[in-house]
Amino acid sequence: MGTFEHQEDGYEQGVEVKAAGAAGFTAQFSTGTKGCGGEVTMKGRPTGPDTIVFRKTDGGQTCRITARYASDFRSVVLEEQGCTMWHGASCEFQGTLKRTGR
Question: What is the pTM of this model?
């Protein structure tokens, strides 16, 4: 599904989404800024024509990231819930990212 990034004032976010067979996807999310950073690889399932929900559970904590794609698939809006364990308190896997690759 592509590679998407956002960079602004030393804050970087990225995601690479790939098809994983049987109508599923895998994604590697990354984020970083001074004093904060992280990444997580997750499996996801589509919940609509332009939405994929990714989940990962570790140590009893579940990270959920909803990816909503623009109709032209040139950008994606990420919304996360419960992912602090994977990136820390000062950054997030959330916001609007622009397509940078296939």
Answer: 0.92
